[in-house]
Amino acid sequence: MSNQTNVAKVDEFTKLNTPKKIGYACGDFACNMSWSLVGSYLVFFLTDIALIPGAIVGLVIFISKFWDAVNDPVIGSLADHTNTRWGRYRPWIMFAFIPMLIFNVLTFTTFPSWSTTARTWWGLGMYFILVLLYTMVNVTYSAMPALMTRDTETRSALSSYRMTGAFLAMTVLSFMTLRVVNYFGGGAKGYQYATIFFSLLAVPFFIITCVSSKEIVKIDDSKGEKVSFISQFKTLAGNWPVIQIAIAYLAWGIIQGGMTFRLYFCTYNAKNELLYANTQTLWSIMGMVGAFSVSYLVKRVNNKGTLGGVAFSIIAAASIISFFLPIENSGAQAIYYVLQAIVGLGTGMMLGNVFGMMPDTAEYTYDKYGVYAAGFLSTFINFMLKVGQAVSISGAALILDKVGYVPGGEQSSTVLFTMNFGSHMFVGLCCIVAAIALFSYKLDKKTYAEIVERLRQKGMAN
């Protein structure tokens, strides 16, 4: 019997079948049992349930988000240098998702009998650990499509399916969170039990992703330049595709601060807490439609940036119109449902498309700098997202505190205006900036094909 190892080349440009795309998408459904729960409810939980002053909550979020942003490039670089029989990125998901879900529950656990100082330190500590574990899972999950195929349209399809899974999770959370919280008695106990429920729901979906998603693209590190972690930052100099996507992510992160206001806006401006749950549910459903449409729309454009620019423009228009609605009026609330559906559609298109743009920058960087750094680039782009979130989400809590927000009480006209402006006009203006960045994106399909051909000629791609 021959001892020769079978070294037959794998078609790295494979077009993955639908079950594999769904299997990959299950991971973002699972991730959003933490991400969307934190993004939509953590600030409200800390101010109105844990009863931590808004200024302190803002500081907690600000510090933890910057901690999140700083550890991203470190995790990405470590993942790029991981080499196991399971791949580079998949092992991180396999071994980190259970601890992440445990700290997801602990983050939404508070003890009313404790002092404000003790509750604050508990909230800060649990959230610090959660964001580190979430980085280990989600950053490597985001980088994985770069090693699942080199086919650019299939990567976009993976992104489309992924974001469909994400919006399905958001739909479940939007419809069920407050209802599950109330079912378990509301307050601290209600939020803790609801988080346990959603965290357990995530487990089988993480398992499906780990089992079904394989990394088939082989990177011969001997043919690339050996660089240290610090040296990897040199690949960002003049790397305009990465910079433009990072600008869009920064804008999207800042937009999260505006969206943090929405629960307050629906509760106090519209005096209808379920308006938030209902419009978020509709927003998520339309987000699924928008995300899924990307797998078809991307085949009909020469430049993925065009789709992202259009999507951000749609969000901007609907958000700015929403600002001018007399939301306390039932007729205006009906229009608000329509506008939030449009925002959801645009958001799904945008996220489904932008996540599909990110893996292509790995080949661009490999060709230009001789360094394969899909994980590092993914974490840098996510770093910009989290910087935006750190500033805006913490800023939302600080601003509310400064303008005189009273938890559970009557709000002044200044507070109500701030909630409306932050939820809508602010979001619209940020989306305009992001649209401009993506409309100017230059890494089109023709350019990408030329890059891949050069890599093949150098023996750096199959």
In short:
The chain is mainly alpha-helical and 462 residues long. It has helices at 18-49, 54-80, 90-107, 116-143, 145-148, 152-183, 187-212, 240-269, 273-297, 304-323, 330-357, 360-369, 374-403, 413-439, 445-457.
Could you explain how this protein is built, in words?
The protein is an all-alpha fold and 462 residues long. It has a single domain (18-214, 222-457), classed as Growth Hormone, Chain: A. Helices cover 76% and strands 0% of the residues. The chain contains 15 helices and no strands. The protein has helices at 18-49, 54-80, 90-107, 116-143, 145-148, 152-183, 187-212, 240-269, 273-297, 304-323, 330-357, 360-369, 374-403, 413-439, 445-457. Helix 2 (54-80) packs parallel to helix 4, helix 6 packs across helix 11 (330-357) and helix 13 (374-403) runs antiparallel to helix 14. The chain is globular and about 70 Å long.
